What we know:
By secondary structure, this protein is an all-beta fold. It has one domain (2-54). The protein has strands at 2-7, 11-17, 21-22, 27-39, 42-54.
Amino acid sequence: MILKEEIAGTNAVSLAISKVYDDGKNKYIFSKGKVVTTYNGHFYYDYYLRKYTFIN
Length: 56
């Protein structure tokens, strides 16, 4: 599943959801994304990785 969202015209956030992992107790997913920002005609990229845990 890919989620792409345009924010304020020049900022774009893309989010990719990976498969669900199961360690026997909890299920969790990792999401990685790239934030693109323009400032004074220059492009700046910010990458991030987040872990989401499903709690029963």
